[in-house]
Amino acid sequence: VERENVQKRTFTRWINLHLGKRKPPLKVKDLFIDIQDGKILMALLEVLSGQKLMHEYKSSTHRIFRLNNIAKALKFLEDSNVKLVSIDAAEIADGNSSLVLGLIWNIILFFQIKELTGNLNRNSSSSSLSSGPSGPESDTSHPNTPSVERNMSITVKDQRKAIRALLIWVQRKTRKYGVAVQDFASSWRSGLAFLAIIKAIDSTLVDMKQALEKSARENLEDAFSIAQNKLGVPRLLEPEDIMVESPDEQSIVTYVAQFLEHFPELEGEDFTDPDKELPIESTYVHIKDTPLEKEGKILILSESEENMYTVNHERSHPAPPKVHIHDTTE
């Protein structure tokens, strides 16, 4: 339920960002209710695609007209090669929460990550996209599909691979500040990953040494506020959304992708060869004594105290006097 609530809030903010561009603008108050007549859905797709859909919208309280509006929107998505599984007009008209969120996620995945994928295709070889997940659920191509349509379907398949590429980009941006990002879930709970991305964009906005002394809530609040006020990256998340055992991956991907959308010039250097690891300079570092109340956050400083790393340390074992940081994926 909590994951659904987080997605609902995040997706609603994302939708309103785009609906605010309309003249006149529209705004979603309750996603599960407002989507039921098809107007919000058609207006959103119109903004995202640049194509006209609203001229086909019929305002009515009758269910048949609502179903017809939604069906037209879903047909537009299918014609755009957005694969929709088990999503029909009736479920959306009834406000089925899981299917509404699934529909919006598919729209975000296709339209939000589309530009990123296009840049990846331009800035990297085709083999560099092969590192992402693949399988029946992500492959919309068919052997009997005409070549042009098949190519479009492969592009849709690449949207999922772009998520993997987005993770690689994040890792390259954050590792220089000693922040290890392994996924789009628990790696973000401390707030340090968000701050490291901001620092990679503008190093004057974040002091990572100070951030290591702050709580997760403080870091998350700082990151979301700085990103919005200083970088113009819309605030789609709240600290409470991330400070849970398993943060919602789709919500974090949606938010992190905003940084690439606002600062596309940052990606060229990182995506020239996503399979190539950037070197980390090997150095001997000391483990600093840490209070018991902060046992989950161990601060490691190099002898020059210029580079810092955070690691988890089991207190049942004595802290080693020195730790060697190797240039390996482990």
From TrEMBL:
Protein name in the entry: Calmin
**GO annotations under biological process?**
nuclear migration
Name the species this protein comes from: Apaloderma vittatum
Report the InterPro entries cross-referenced here. Actinin_actin-bd_CS, CH_dom, CH_dom_sf, CLMN_CH_second, LINC-complex_assoc
Top-level lineage group? Eukaryota
Using the record's annotation, list all stretches that form the Calponin-homology (CH) domain.
5-112, 160-264
GO annotations of cellular component type: cytoplasm; meiotic nuclear membrane microtubule tethering complex; nuclear outer membrane
Task: Alphabetically list the UniProt keywords.
Answer: Actin-binding, Membrane, Phosphoprotein, Repeat, Transmembrane, Transmembrane helix
Main location, first listed in the record: membrane
Q: How does it sit in the membrane?
A: Single-pass type IV membrane protein
